[in-house]
Design brief:
- This protein has 392 residues and is of the alpha+beta class.
- Helices cover 58% and strands 13% of the residues.
- It has helices at residues 17-22, 122-136, 141-160, 165-181, 200-227, 233-251, 256-284, 290-319, 329-391; strands at residues 25-35, 46-50, 53-54, 56-61, 64-69, 84-88, 99-108, 112-113, 118-121.
- The chain has a four-stranded antiparallel β-sheet with strand order 1-7-4-5.
- A hairpin with a 2-residue loop joins strand 4 (56-61) and strand 5.
- The N and C termini lie far apart (131 Å).
């Protein structure tokens, strides 16, 4: 009976506009719009593109069900970060009159319908949907290969040089970052959600929440190890307790609404450690210990793009309320990882070159000393022969 509902204007077309209207605890909101087919589009199969719609939805055209994204009921699954594409068959369209579109949206978390929604020919809509989906979701697949490569290289470096524990922390940081990035294209994974295998809520708890807590914890350990600052036992215990507490709370969460409430508390709690680590980096930029000061300079340069991107994302998402622009902090974070990786790679190459030079120098020195020894032996033999002749 959605055609009998009373509809009000949706003033905003940006970030969290749906959750502001009805809340974010599982309420439903109906959206309505209508259009007339222009002369150049009559008697054709059309489609509709919604660049971003969160959490899950069902769309009806002139009373006929067209398609849905995500799940409305338990176990609930969001539509993800992909663009939403709805095909409008020619038989469902009114070629001369009004065409009415009704969309039922489940509001969970930061529910949003973006601007730039449009209707056009099917081929054009498919192309535009693919473009939006790539930049909002699938572009992060490229990061996965880089992060896996970083993990493999540095876990091998750690096993060859266990004294440098920051190799271990950095490799694990890359691995958990890989898991975290996967939630942006979870809808394409064959073992998640409606594809079968891992229930969507469980995957979000591990990939989006627990992986993020692990990243924060490992980042702190990496900073301490790289700057060669000794951990106090009480600090280490407190960090471990906070990390375990956050993980346990998330694991025992039974629904998405509670999970979103928890993250508002747990994320700032786990981020305290990161803030303290950043303060420590800043302080060590002025330490009299030269090697530590140089390392702090390097970390400051490496992390600067990430901090700038976080500020930019806050302005874009919360002030400008634009959901379509890609999160700058994610590629900036990837840049920081690759930058640090490059530094370690160059450092390892310098060490390798130094060892190679020393090996060559040692070989040359051994060869020279061998020649001298042979010459000395020959001279000794000649002297012995002369002495023997004199004795005779």
């Amino acid at each position: 009976d959605f055609w009998s509902y009373t509809f009000l204007p949706l003033e905003e077309s940006g970030y969290r506009n749906i959750s502001k209207k009805v809340g974010n605890k599982g309420q439903f909101l109906w959206l309505r719009t209508s259009f007339r087919i222009t002369e150049d589009l009559k008697d054709r199969d059309l489609a509709m593109v919604i660049p971003y719609l969160h959490y899950a939805c069902e769309l009806y055209l002139n009373g006929e069900f067209i398609d849905d994204y995500g799940f409305m009921d338990e176990p609930r699954q969001e539509a993800g970060f992909t663009s939403l594409l709805f095909d409008f068959p020619e038989d469902f369209l009114n070629q001369t009159g009004e065409n009415n579109i009704y969309i039922k949206v489940l509001s969970l978390g930061q529910s949003t319908i973006s601007q730039s929604v449009f209707i056009g020919e099917r081929d054009d809509c498919w192309a535009m949907s693919d473009i939006h989906t790539f930049w909002q979701s699938r572009v992060y697949i490229f990061f996965e290969g880089c992060l896996f490569g970083v993990f493999v290289v540095f876990i091998m470096l750690f096993f060859t040089n266990k004294k440098n524990k920051y190799y271990l922390y950095f490799s694990l940081l890359a691995q958990f970052s890989l898991i975290f990035f996967s939630n942006f294209f979870a809808g394409d994974l064959p073992f998640v959600g409606f594809h079968g295998g891992i229930p969507y809520l469980r995957y979000i708890k591990y990939a989006r929440c627990i992986a993020f807590f692990a990243m924060e914890f490992l980042f702190t350990l990496f900073v301490f190890a790289f700057l060669e600052v000794k951990h106090r036992k009480i600090d280490m215990i407190m960090r471990a307790v906070v990390a375990v507490f956050c993980v346990v709370e998330v694991v025992h969460t039974n629904d998405y609404v509670t999970l979103m409430k928890l993250t508002k508390v747990l994320l700032p709690l786990s981020a305290i450690d990161v803030v303290l680590s950043i303060i420590m980096i800043i302080k060590n930029n002025f330490t009299p210990i030269e090697d530590r000061r140089k390392r702090a300079h390097f970390l400051s340069i490496s992390l600067s793009p990430l901090f700038i991107a976080l500020i930019a994302d806050y302005i874009i998402k919360f002030i400008a309320k634009n959901i379509l622009i890609t999160y700058f902090s994610l590629p900036a974070y990837m840049f920081s990882i690759v930058f640090i990786f490059s530094y370690f790679a160059m450092q390892y190459k310098r060490t390798s070159n130094r060892l190679e030079y020393l090996n060559r120098s040692l070989e040359d020195e051994v060869e020279l000393q061998t020649k001298r020894l042979v010459t000395a032996n020959e001279e000794l033999e000649r002297d012995q022969e002369v002495a023997q002749e004199d004795m005779n």
